[in-house]
Amino acid sequence: MGFKGTKLEKKQNYDKKLCDLLEQYTQVLVCAADNVGSTQLQGIRKGLRPDSVVLMGKNTMMKRSIRLHAEKTGNDAYLNLMTLLVGNVGLIFTKGDLKEVSEEVAKYKVGAPARVGLVAPIDVVVPPGNTGLDPSQTSFFQVLNIPTKINKGTVEIVAPVELIHKGEKVGSSEAALLSKLGIRPFSYGLVVQSVYDNGSVFSPEVLDLTEDDLCARFAAGVSNVAALSLGISYPTLAAAPHMFANAYKNVVAVALATEYSFPQAEKVKEYLADPSKFAAAAPAAAAAVSSGSAAPAAAKVEEKAAEPEEESDDDMGFGLFD
């Protein structure tokens, strides 16, 4: 039941209500409310209770109340809401999870017919099939260049046709045809445009980010930092592993080119001295991947079998019975 009183009293009560909501809630969803009826809005209010409150009103009144409240409290973060109050919008104050509230709001959409002069929010495609209309109605289809045929005394659409494109205005012929076919192509409801959270404003697409998305973006950021650090030779924590790996490669290269050696370079020299070991190592590595924990056990068996055999450097790479 709405408040009854003078115009000034209504404004004062609205101002008090908005200021109280700003004090109680730190999260606000700014939603577009075009073509949303009062009955539909009432259903949204019921669905969002008790953690959320929907507040509608004129933009000028909301901006004035927000500005005065910011001046009174000294909290300029509220002023970020004023730039979002453009067009036919409403505010949803909530203490719940922003993603869940946004998904709940999206559920309350109702179908609507294509009215003449309305800007189409989506593409409208007329599907093929029997329309149930008698042959005298073919003039509608001919005007719109829709291929049809007469089947069992009724008009049948032969192929799907894009009747209206997104962003175009609905014409009288398109509206009349969709009405005859009983197609209600559009649906309307509150659409979240922006999110306000403790003074920060961001796009609602942020709410759809998952932990995997965050990890992937963090990894991409670390990769960029590492690449920049390596490019300008500036040490950072992200680039340190790559710097150590590159330094190790350089030291091994020096050891291979000279007589100098160290334990980590000995195995590389050993493989280069006997290239056949590369061929022997490849199947072993593949077996380790496929067999898992069975590979270490097999390696131990091979080592025990090879211990009694003393081979010279010339015999390396051959089997026991070669």
TrEMBL record:
Residue span, Large ribosomal subunit protein uL10-like insertion domain: 114-183
InterPro entries documented for this protein: Ribosomal_protein_uL10, Ribosomal_uL10, Ribosomal_uL10-like_insert, Ribosomal_uL10-like_insert_sf, Ribosomal_uL10-like_sf, uL10_eukaryotes
Gene3D superfamilies documented for this protein: 3.30.70.1730, 3.90.105.20
An example molecular function term from Gene Ontology annotations: large ribosomal subunit rRNA binding
Region spans: Disordered: 298-322
GO biological process terms on file: cytoplasmic translation; ribosomal large subunit assembly
Pfam families documented for this protein: Ribosomal_60s, Ribosomal_L10, RL10P_insert
Alphabetical UniProt keywords: Ribonucleoprotein, Ribosomal protein
A cellular-component GO term for this protein: cytosolic large ribosomal subunit
Function, in words: Ribosomal protein P0 is the functional equivalent of E.coli protein L10.
Family per similarity comment: Belongs to the universal ribosomal protein uL10 family.
PANTHER family per record: 60S ACIDIC RIBOSOMAL PROTEIN P0, LARGE RIBOSOMAL SUBUNIT PROTEIN UL10
Name used for this protein in its record: 60S acidic ribosomal protein P0
